[in-house]
Amino acid sequence: MEHSSPRVTALDPALRVGCVARRFRAVRRPLATTAAVIAAIGAGGADLASAHGFAGKRFFPATLATDDPFVADELSLPTVARRRTEDNGSSTTETSASIDFSKRITRDFGLGAGATWLRLEPSGGTRVQGWDNFALSAKYQFLKSDPDETIISVGVDADLGSTGASRVGAESFSTITPTFFVGHGFGSLPDDMRLLRPFAITGSVGIGVPTRTSSSSLDEDGNAVTEQHPSVLKFGFALEYSLGYLHSFVKDVGLSGALRNAVPIVEVALQRPINRGGGPTTGTINPGILFPGRTMQFGIEAVIPVNGHTGGGTGVLLQLHFFLDDLLPRSLGKPLIGD
Amino acid sequence: MSLRARGATLLIGLFVSTSVLAHAMLDRSAPPVGSSVKSSPARVELWFTQPLEPAFSSVKVLDGGGRQVDRGDSTVDSVDAAHLLISVPALPSGRYRVVWRAISADTHVTEGDFTFDVAP
């Protein structure tokens, strides 16, 4: 007996954050000597403005569950997620650990690579673990407006089929996802709304297109099974409130320590199949907090299923993120071409 | 305290101990950002998270009409290179905007502004 079943992915999308946790940032310039700085500025030709994640006064921190619009030299190591999922009444605890690396080729164009290790623990079943498919990405930042605190980019992400372990659900086909990214800060709000100026939003929308529309296999009874692979609309956003922005540009409310520069954040990551049997919208809402530091950032979020179709329980997501342009400004932290 | 709690505390402490980012960000000011003061300050002072390049870091003070009202003597403290200051005459009541530009010793440029009020 042959039957079809729409399928988006075998794994909880919330645990695939490593593939979207890459951050792209703008340019910075390494220090030679103070004299060289003075000479450069004095000559009037130095473009010293901006650095990773900045648009004007706005610093956009690296987000955990959704991608952001910058090109940057950065390393997320690790991004760890853990959540219980449900599928047809069976429960599985999924744990993932990801590494993502992004490198600027030019000032506004960067490439990225990511890998995710997965452990699946079915309730009452046998634990399996292994690597998910490896991912590559490219991104081009084509607009940055300092006065508007806005950045817009386009990019493409490729999950490479058969590069991971099928026992953890790694697909045998690739998925290509062209994506549009935008980030905007609200620093230009009128004076009577100044306490809202620390808000910023980043978002992305893309369509994941599988390189194979369906797969056939035999089930336990020897029946042929055809599995459909729909294209998937992927969209998400992050709403953040920068306490550092509040203290530096709006009002010093006297917070100290880690909270002075922390960024409370809510991320929403959703996906919806758009053909071949379709399916409901699924995803997660992730409230959390980020702590940007001098050369690195720590973030932690809860992972809450957005609806009953997503299923499962509340999980947790953590990330340690390194700003390579600050850590290694003269080597890995600068564009390969130009500056 | 459990081992996990100690680990979390250590991790957060790692970030708390470093100022945000490797750029010269405004850490605090006098008068404070967004504050209201009872009388005119003699000067406006800003403290940054990084030492500044004195030749190319500056601050100015504008009144509600956008006119510059400071004495034009913006300077980086010779003792504390993260300290930028400018003197102002006796300011009448009103809202004032402080506009700064900072170049840190590692060449990053940051710019910003904030307001403070002199109460009637």
Can you walk me through this structure?
The complex is a heterodimer of chains A (339) and B (120). By secondary structure, chain A is mainly beta. Helix content of chain A is 6%, strand content 47%. Chain A contains 3 helices and 18 strands. Chain A has helices at residues 34-42, 243-250, 324-327; strands spanning 3-6, 54-55, 58-59, 74-87, 90-104, 109-122, 128-131, 135-145, 150-159, 175-185, 199-210, 214-218, 224-228, 232-241, 263-273, 282-292, 296-305, 315-323. The N and C termini of chain A lie far apart (61 Å). Mean pLDDT of chain A is 85; it is low at 1-50. Chain B is mainly β. In chain B, a hairpin with a 5-residue loop joins β7 (94-103) and β8 (109-118). Chain B is built from 1 helix and 8 strands. Classes of the chains: A mainly beta (339), B mainly beta (120). The interface between A and B is large, with 40 and 35 residues.
Secondary-structure blueprint:
The complex is a heterodimer of chains A (339) and B (120).
Chain A: E1 3-6, H1 34-42, E2 54-55, E3 58-59, E4 74-87, E5 90-104, E6 109-122, E7 128-131, E8 135-145, E9 150-159, E10 175-185, E11 199-210, E12 214-218, E13 224-228, E14 232-241, H2 243-250, E15 263-273, E16 282-292, E17 296-305, E18 315-323, H3 324-327
Parallel strand pairs in A: 1-13
Antiparallel strand pairs in A: 2-3, 4-5, 4-18, 5-6, 6-7, 6-8, 8-9, 9-10, 10-11, 11-14, 12-13, 14-15, 15-16, 16-17, 17-18
Chain B: H1 3-16, E1 26-30, E2 36-37, E3 43-48, E4 58-62, E5 75-76, E6 83-87, E7 94-103, E8 109-118
Parallel strand pairs in B: 2-8
Antiparallel strand pairs in B: 1-3, 3-6, 4-7, 5-6, 7-8
